[in-house]
Amino acid sequence: MSLPTVDELRSEVRDWLQQNWTGLPKHDDPWSSSPERIAWLERVLDAGYAVPTYPTEWFGRGYPNDLAAHIRREFTAVKAPGAGQDKYNIPANTILKLGSVPLKQQLLQDFLTERARTCLLYSEPGAGSDLAGVRTTAVRDGDHWVVNGQKVWTSGAQTADYALLIARTDWDAPKHKGLTFFLLPMKQPGIDVRPLVQITGESHFNEVFITDALVPHDHLLGAEGDGWRALQTALAYERSIMGDTGRSSRNRSRADDLIALAREHGRLDDAAVRRSLAEVLALRELNALNNARAKASTEQGTSSSIMSLGKLAMSRILHAEARLKTELIGAAALLAGRDNPESDDVNFLALNAFFTSIGGGTDQIQRNIIGERVLGLPKEPEADRDIPFRQARRN
From which residue to which does any coiled coil extend (predicted)? Predict the structure, then answer.
């Protein structure tokens, strides 16, 4: 198959968008998709723009990363969603790499059009920073696995149709080798979802209690006992997304424009403020370049430790921005509520910055990954790494 030139592709995408894109009605719930959005995503998928780096048999065009990037840029220019899902759609990318052919035939299209929504069942009350220590169990029973346990910090669990689940299937193997990765149907008896209230007042995270829930054997992602490697593939996509955007669940306001905010409050000529502005903007540019380098060198379905660098950098950027915004508005930062929209936005962004420090692996975990896998520093000692998990010390 011959590839188009960059100019040919950009012209094709522009023409298609001009003929098809008219915008979508406002939809405020981030955990559900409107019928109009689903219909639009189906059109994007049919045109081959949703996942252009995928093989042609799986809705793609077989394009290299650098060519596919031009499709994303054209969609971004007109604020149209749906392109570039081969970079950010965690469940679709994971089952493309690890799912069986029947599973891909059954669900890949639904994940790419948001007809099916997913959540991530990874962290547990006793296994957050050390995900290899999970104690949620899956026991084989014929053509199904029976799952019991508890998960926490799960976004979107209330509306999810499926979950990417890491569970322990062998207690006699060392902790990293006794895990299996599943695609768990969420709409079934035995799954109890309880919202958690965040410091921002939102409730996007949940506890999930699982009692004798069933997952079909053909919903394994990867091989039995190879769940740790499968999990790393899914985590790489999550960290890549967070490193790219650090996005908030709430729409940004004028407080997001640092230079405009400094000018409005008469602080743009302040040398200290200008230095802080320059540092934040430089960090953003550096992080964008680092993420582009990581993605250019990472093949579809693989993970890169460099993604941790971008995720950690975005956490630092958001906290630095929050401190600067708080300084710029001064004593007004003590105010909140609808009567003080700018102060309320600044305080929300300051509190929400902690989400990026925790989600997708804490800042401390990212530093460990960078130190060990990027810089080649000695690994931290793990006394329980090579012993049967049932013999490992439990909190």
Answer: none
